[in-house]
């Protein structure tokens, strides 16, 4: 029986398109599948997505089969094949967890109108069964920035960038602006590592910054290497957990962290599929939606700074504060946001400029 | 003493640490190649060293035990290479590449459950007042023991190759295995031993990455260091001291480019990040086009399998 | 104990038999590994070797084997020419990247012009890019005697940096909202390399790979240059006396392998990959080295070896998704397969005799 239904869906894939209204009534059981860009053992990006998968299993138990996932899928042709295999294999909803899967996700989605596709961090929804989701990591960067501005003794703070893309530039700007707000003397050093994951290089980048007098380091690369390097300074240099909590470096150098928390979203979407309320969506949630968690702020941070940071976190969550609130000028002095104006999402998603006060150029 | 706000003493100190893994792996591979064997599986052996060293260190609580474990792990996987190339006479290039693929997979399997653990820390060698000597103390005398051990190993390999009978036999085997065989040397046994030595060094280098340099275990942690080590052997034109220079040069440029970025030098980042490779090529061209014709220094029997016809 | 006796010519029977023997041995050893990981070994082995070819989705997956094998074949055929002559180009990955960039740049430069000449021009551009990138080590080797292994390898890292600059800078999609990556070729018909017959995986790269195999075979068997390549590899001194210019061979072999790798990159970026992105390269250039040796540097052998590698990739992926096997276990399995293939090669080149028997013969 099962084979038969699989064959039917395969036939659908190969041209015999059936209309896909069956889902509106909800489902008894959902097969949710996941495509990962790295190994689960990366301790960061992919690890957190897998935690989200496990959260789905925990929440729905027998009503969901979320045992299917594929690690280290290269972007491009390989992703397209893995997605097709998953769709053929009976997945009802497939989460593709890297920006680079954007075209593959859309291409496969067109062939399988009855399967739901959820693409992380992308912007293309070319078929009605493709939804996109992302997290406002910059909100977490703002909290980090505040702590950095308050905690730095040398007034030099650092940021290890991966690649010069809007996501990273957005993080750098949010970090700097909110550090500057509490400490006008703060200077930002950016080092581009040109990698997402190369622990030795990340460690060297952190070391180079420390030697330049930087004493607070935020990183946009995935490993704990910068924290390990900061740990060698005996408390003089602090940093932040990135993607996952990185609790093993508590209480210092890891003073807090940005945790990618995909569980709530995954539960929400799988749940919607189960009860028949599923609709195409473009979700960009942050601290408020629970996608971005601020890890515990440790005792290495003075109580009043901790309170200030927690207030900032809560204000962002309640909507009382937006990390990009004018007046803000671009690096060249031209105005970007007027007094009191907050950044439109479109500007943020395509951000390719530094704000005023940051020195150096974004590699173009 | 500063240029661009970079303190040379600090720069030297960090390049000495950054160079240890590639130096160890390269000096091991040099011995292997001197014996006439081309083992392109350095990356696979390094990552096995990294994972085995990490696991051993975590369970014993001793970084030294970890280094031994790393060397042992890399030697174990290199036995496959030795068996295939020396007994089954398989192609060395392909076998080495296959070993890298195998090692990357196996290390990831073994390392499951070791993510996010901190290994026991390795202390600096206490040199007392010597560490306070201006410049020299900071640059050269405040490191962990493996930094010095790696230099001693280079010196040892140099001395053995140059002055000892063992070195002479090794070179004979690498230059002309048929002649060496005719003289009664056990070519295959010598090569297997060389392969094991090379693996032990690569394993130490890998363990240094996971225990000291980064300290942690994550999949793919060596991130291509094994390939750089291979390049350095050629760069060094199979001379031990030049391995040291090559490793310091490569490590130095890598560290320097990040330092230049951190110091705010206005050089486009992408040129900086490709500079270690371009400068390596440039230096190699200069060296190989000079009088010594360094490129011709390769062991004559490199990569050729030996089969005793008698 | 046993001794080995070199066969005057490799055994034909064993040359065909060894791959099957190796696959069988790998199934046993791999089965033990999978059993140790708590999976049903029979299910895993069947999923890897049987399902992509004859399973229920084979119609789709067989095409995917072609998609995966085409770039491997193109690159490996070129590399094999050099390897036969003792010229070690191990930087095909870099030539693949540069070929993709130059070819793609031509198409993107004239966007959105529709003309039938654009794609052929891009093909030329891709081959040219790979050729140029391979000429650097070739020239340095012939002019300055610099080791080509090192230079070609270092240039891979340089090419990767150029690639990330292309994806985030000069080739970035101007309508991509600042995200990295070029325009997609699937929505630009004149520059695209779509499936020629929908659902088969057949694209121009597959056609080119087949042509390259035949071309290389003819070159090696029927052409003077092929003879010179083989002579230079087997007897360098004799080749010199026979008037073969070593420098010329280096330039030709490096050039041909670079151009083929560039072509592979171009077909990949315009077809299966679809765009220039930061992580566009997935290691075909390095895997192709293994493929070249598995195919015993013979063009048709390479084609089969590439298909076998593709099978382990595609089938391995299926085992990972459907049976929950860690992807690292698949890499270990591939490593085992290569080890066994290399080990049993012995049988085709040597005769195994018991030591006592050999003495009697003498």
UniProtKB/TrEMBL annotation, chain A:
Pfam families linked: Bmp
InterPro entries: ABC-Purine-Binding, Peripla_BP_I, PnrA-like
Residue intervals of the ABC transporter substrate-binding protein PnrA-like domain: 29-315
Domain of life the protein comes from: Bacteria
Protein keywords: Signal
Gene Ontology cellular component annotations, sorted alphabetically: plasma membrane
Keyword flag Signal: yes
Signal peptide (residue range): 1-24
Gene3D superfamilies registered for this protein in UniProt: 3.40.50.2300
Protein name per its UniProtKB record: Nucleoside-binding protein
Source organism phylogeny: Bacteria, Pseudomonadati, Pseudomonadota, Alphaproteobacteria, Rhodobacterales
Automatic annotation (TrEMBL), chain B:
Membrane-spanning parts: 6-25, 37-58, 64-84, 96-115, 135-161, 192-211, 217-236, 243-263, 269-287
Major location category of this protein: membrane
Location in or out of the cell: Cell membrane
Topology relative to the membrane: Multi-pass membrane protein
Keyword Transmembrane listed: yes
Gene Ontology CC, one term: plasma membrane
Signal peptide extent: none
Stored Pfam families: BPD_transp_2
Keywords in alphabetical order: Cell membrane, Membrane, Transmembrane, Transmembrane helix
A GO molecular-function descriptor: transmembrane transporter activity
PANTHER family: ABC TRANSPORTER PERMEASE PROTEIN (PTHR43370:SF2), SUGAR ABC TRANSPORTER INTEGRAL MEMBRANE PROTEIN-RELATED (PTHR43370)
Protein name: Nucleoside ABC transporter membrane protein
Upper classification of the organism: Bacteria, Pseudomonadati, Pseudomonadota, Alphaproteobacteria, Rhodobacterales
UniProtKB/TrEMBL annotation, chain C:
Transmembrane segments: 14-37, 65-83, 95-111, 117-140, 149-171, 202-220, 249-267, 273-294, 301-320, 332-352
Annotated compartments: Cell membrane
Pfam families per the UniProt record, alphabetical: BPD_transp_2
Keyword tags: Cell membrane, Membrane, Transmembrane, Transmembrane helix
Molecular functions (GO terms): transmembrane transporter activity
Entry GO CC: plasma membrane
Topology in the lipid bilayer: Multi-pass membrane protein
Keyword RNA-binding among record annotations: no
Principal place of residence: membrane
PANTHER family membership: ABC TRANSPORTER, PERMEASE PROTEIN, GUANOSINE ABC TRANSPORTER PERMEASE PROTEIN NUPP
Name of protein: Nucleoside ABC transporter membrane protein
Source organism of the structure: Albidovulum denitrificans
Organism taxonomic ancestry: Bacteria, Pseudomonadati, Pseudomonadota, Alphaproteobacteria, Rhodobacterales
């Amino acid at each position: 029986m099962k084979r038969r239904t699989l064959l039917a869906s395969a036939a659908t894939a190969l041209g015999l398109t059936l209309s896909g209204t069956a889902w509106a009534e909800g489902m008894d059981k959902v097969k949710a599948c996941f495509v990962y860009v790295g190994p689960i053992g990366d301790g960061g990006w992919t690890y957190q997505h897998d935690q989200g998968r496990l959260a789905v299993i925990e929440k729905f138990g027998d009503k969901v089969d979320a045992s299917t996932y594929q690690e280290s899928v290269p972007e491009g042709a390989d992703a397209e094949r893995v997605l097709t295999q998953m769709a053929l294999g009976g997945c009802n909803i497939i989460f593709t967890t890297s920006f680079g899967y954007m075209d593959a996700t859309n291409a496969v989605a067109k062939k399988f109108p009855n399967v739901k596709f959820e693409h992380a961090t992308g912007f293309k929804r070319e078929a009605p069964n493709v939804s996109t989701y992302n997290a406002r990591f910059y909100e977490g960067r703002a909290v980090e920035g505040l702590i950095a501005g308050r905690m730095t003794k040398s007034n030099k703070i650092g940021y290890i960038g991966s690649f010069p893309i809007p996501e990273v530039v957005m993080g750098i700007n949010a970090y700097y602006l909110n550090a500057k707000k509490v400490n006008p003397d703060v200077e930002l050093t950016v080092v581009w590592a040109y990698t997402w994951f190369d622990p030795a290089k990340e460690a060297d980048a952190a070391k180079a910054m420390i030697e330049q007098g930087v004493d607070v380091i935020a990183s946009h690369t995935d490993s704990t290497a910068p924290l390990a390097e900061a740990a060698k300074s005996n408390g003089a240099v602090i940093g932040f957990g990135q993607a996952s909590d990185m609790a093993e470096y508590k209480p210092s150098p890891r003073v807090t962290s940005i945790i990618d928390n995909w569980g709530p979203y995954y539960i929400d979407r799988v749940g919607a599929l189960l009860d028949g309320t599923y609709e195409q969506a473009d979700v960009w949630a942050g601290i408020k939606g629970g996608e971005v968690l601020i890890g515990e702020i440790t005792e290495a941070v003075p109580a009043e700074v901790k309170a200030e940071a927690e207030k900032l976190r809560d204000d962002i969550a309640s909507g009382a504060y937006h990390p990009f609130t004018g007046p803000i000028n671009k690096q060249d002095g031209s105005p970007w946001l007027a007094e009191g104006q907050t950044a439109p999402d479109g500007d943020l998603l395509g951000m390719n400029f530094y704000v005023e006060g940051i020195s150096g150029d974004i590699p173009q | 003493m500063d240029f661009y706000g970079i303190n040379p003493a600090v720069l030297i100190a960090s390049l000495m640490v950054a160079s240890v893994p590639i130096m160890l792996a390269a000096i091991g591979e040099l011995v292997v190649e001197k014996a006439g064997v081309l083992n392109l599986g350095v990356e696979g052996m390094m990552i096995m060293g990294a994972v085995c060293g990490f696991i051993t260190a975590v369970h014993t609580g001793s970084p030294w035990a970890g280094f031994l474990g790393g060397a042992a792990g890399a030697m174990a996987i290199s036995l496959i290479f030795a068996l295939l190339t020396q007994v089954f006479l398989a192609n060395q290039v392909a076998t080495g590449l296959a070993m890298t693929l195998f090692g990357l997979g196996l290390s990831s399997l073994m390392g499951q459950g070791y993510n996010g653990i901190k290994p026991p820390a390795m202390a600096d060698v206490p040199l007392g007042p010597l560490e306070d000597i201006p410049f020299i103390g900071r640059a050269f005398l405040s490191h962990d023991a493996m930094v010095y051990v790696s230099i001693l190993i280079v010196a040892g390999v140099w001395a053995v190759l140059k002055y000892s009978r063992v070195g002479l036999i090794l070179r004979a085997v690498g230059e002309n295995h048929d002649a060496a065989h005719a003289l009664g040397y056990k070519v295959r046994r010598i090569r297997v031993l060389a392969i094991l030595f090379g693996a032990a060094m690569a394993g130490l280098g890998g363990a240094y990455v996971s225990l000291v340099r980064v300290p942690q275990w994550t999949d793919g942690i060596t991130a291509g260091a094994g390939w750089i080590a291979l390049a350095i052997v050629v760069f060094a034109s199979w001379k031990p001291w030049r391995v040291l220079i090559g490793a310091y040069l490569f490590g130095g440029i890598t560290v320097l480019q990040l330092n230049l970025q951190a110091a705010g030098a206005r050089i486009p980042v992408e040129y900086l990040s490709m500079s270690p490779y371009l400068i390596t090529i440039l230096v190699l061209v200069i060296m190989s086009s000079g009088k010594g014709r360094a490129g011709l220094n390769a062991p004559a029997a490199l990569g050729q399998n030996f089969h005793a016809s008698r | 104990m046993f001794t080995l006796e070199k066969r005057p010519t490799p055994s034909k029977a064993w040359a065909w038999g060894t791959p099957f023997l190796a696959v069988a041995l790998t199934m046993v050893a791999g089965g033990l590994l999978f059993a140790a990981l708590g999976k049903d070994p029979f299910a895993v082995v069947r999923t890897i070797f049987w399902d992509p070819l004859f399973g229920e989705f084979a119609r789709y997956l067989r095409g995917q084997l072609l998609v995966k094998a085409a770039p491997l074949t193109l690159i490996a055929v070129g590399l094999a020419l050099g390897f036969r002559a003792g010229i070690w180009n191990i930087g095909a990955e870099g030539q693949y990247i540069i070929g993709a960039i130059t070819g793609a740049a031509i198409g993107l430069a004239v966007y959105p012009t529709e003309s039938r000449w654009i794609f052929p021009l891009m093909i030329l551009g891709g081959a040219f890019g790979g050729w140029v990138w391979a000429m650097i080590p070739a020239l340095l080797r012939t002019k300055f005697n610099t080791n080509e292994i090192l230079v070609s390898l270092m240039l891979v890292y340089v090419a990767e940096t150029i690639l990330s600059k292309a994806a985030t800078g000069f080739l970035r999609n101007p309508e991509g909202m600042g995200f990295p990556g070029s325009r997609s070729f699937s929505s630009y018909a004149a520059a695209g390399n779509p499936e020629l017959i929908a659902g088969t995986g057949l694209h121009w790269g597959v056609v080119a790979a087949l042509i390259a195999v035949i071309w290389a075979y003819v070159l090696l068997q029927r052409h003077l240059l092929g003879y010179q390549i083989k002579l230079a590899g087997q007897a360098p001194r004799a080749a010199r006396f026979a008037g073969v210019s070593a420098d010329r061979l280096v330039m030709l072999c490096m050039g041909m392998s670079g151009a083929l790798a560039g072509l592979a990159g171009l077909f990949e970026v315009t077809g299966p990959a679809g765009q220039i992105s930061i992580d566009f390269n997935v290691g075909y250039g390095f895997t192709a080295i293994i493929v070249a040796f598995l195919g015993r540097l013979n063009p048709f052998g390479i084609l089969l070896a590439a298909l076998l590698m593709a099978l382990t990739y595609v089938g391995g992926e299926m085992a990972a998704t459907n049976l929950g096997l860690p992807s690292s276990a698949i890499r270990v399995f591939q490593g085992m397969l290569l080890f066994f293939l290399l080990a049993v090669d012995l049988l085709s080149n040597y005769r195994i005799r018991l030591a006592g028997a050999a003495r009697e013969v003498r």
